[in-house]
Design goal:
- The protein is an alpha+beta fold.
- Helix content is about 30%, strand content about 20%.
- It contains five helices and 17 strands.
- It has a three-stranded antiparallel β-sheet, with helices on one face. A three-stranded antiparallel β-sheet has the order 2-4-7.
- Helix 2 crosses helix 3.
- It is globular, with a radius of gyration of 20 Å.
- The structure holds 2-amino-4-trifluoromethylsulfanyl-butyric acid and cobalt (II) ion (2 copies).
- The site of 2-amino-4-trifluoromethylsulfanyl-butyric acid has 12 residues, from loops.
- One cobalt (II) ion binds next to loops.
């Protein structure tokens, strides 16, 4: 049934019907709302977000496939007694052999080609002489650049047989990513993603790291928008087709607080509790989303 009196003209100061959250006059007034070019301009002008075109998406998807094959290789080779440096060597060689460049290497002074984060290390672990032990959990975060396109993906692996705490934090981190991704569709907003993650993780007695967040990706390593893994439903930038960003919740078994080691990179939980993370690069489509680095969650 059509409601009467519903044809009121959109006022200049009303919220724009395109869902941008801006005033109509600052947004689509006088523009063809259906035009993709306008949306692209608008998202760049208002948020510095570069929406991706078909050919860009194909490029990022291709990089994503290489990134996933890299993680498969690591998963196949990972074992107790292996050093984190050996994981770096594996990732570096495989990336270069496949015509790509490892984005982490020399990124803002990061000295290695991959982040390897063990147990209470939340993220940005620098590969080195540390050897993996039975029962460890290890996040491996890879970001190749292929033909100029970036894709960012990580998983947390078990070394040998995990204990109960290790099993729990890995399960909650994986489910957190799944719930975050499930909010990725046009009509939802960035805050819906963080809300879904935070409310779930906290319901399991775990906590969400706030200092590191997901990010736009594709043309560069870290682009707008910022994608917090906490927040409020219905807040933030509206999701529109062509947005490509990561969702990468870092979930702690204890409290959320962190400390950065003297190497200025390694982030560890302040209370020494275990931390786990899963990350995928996600595209917003007309229908919902497509992971450009898909794996089962
Ligand atoms: N891959 C990380 C992310 O998900 C960033 C690592 S930055 C580095 O955003 F310099 F440590 F590689
Ligand atoms: Co990332
Ligand atoms: Co990453």
């Amino acid at each position: 049934m059509l409601l009467r009196g519903n044809k009121r003209k959109v006022g200049r100061n009303d919220p724009c019907p395109c869902g941008s959250g801006l005033k109509y006059k600052k947004c689509c007034l006088g523009k063809d709302l259906s035009s993709r070019e306008n949306l692209k301009e608008l998202y760049y002008k208002n948020y510095k977000i570069r929406l991706k075109e078909k050919k860009d998406i194909e490029g990022i998807r291709k990089t994503g496939r290489l990134a996933l094959r890299t993680l498969d290789l690591v998963e196949m080779k990972i074992h107790a007694g292996m050093s984190t440096e050996e994981i770096n060597t594996l990732v570096h060689k495989f990336t270069v052999e496949n015509g790509a460049v490892p984005a982490p290497l020399n990124y803002r002074g990061f000295p290695k080609s991959v982040c390897v984060s063990v147990n209470d290390v939340i993220c940005h672990g620098i590969p080195g002489q540390r050897t993996l032990e039975d029962g460890d959990i290890v996040n491996v975060d890879v970001t190749p650049i292929l033909d100029g396109y970036y894709a960012d993906v990580s998983k947390t692996f078990f070394v040998g047989t995990p204990g109960r705490d290790a099993q729990k934090i890995v399960k909650v981190a994986k489910e957190s990513l799944k719930r975050g991704i499930s909010m990725a569709r046009p009509g939802n907003r960035i805050g819906d993603i963080g809300w879904a993650i935070q409310s779930y993780a906290e319901s399991q007695g775990c906590s969400v790291v706030q200092e590191f967040i997901g990010h736009g990706v594709g043309f560069d390593f870290h682009e707008p928008p910022q994608v917090p893994h906490f927040g409020r439903k219905g807040e933030g930038i509206p999701l529109v087709p062509g947005m490509v960003f990561t969702i990468e919740p870092m979930i702690n078994l204890g409290k959320r607080h962190l400390r950065i080691l003297d190497d200025n990179w390694t982030a560890v939980t302040a209370d020494g509790s275990l931390s786990a993370q899963f990350e995928q690069t996600v595209l917003i489509t007309e229908e919902g989303f497509e992971s450009l680095t898909p794996y089962d969650l």
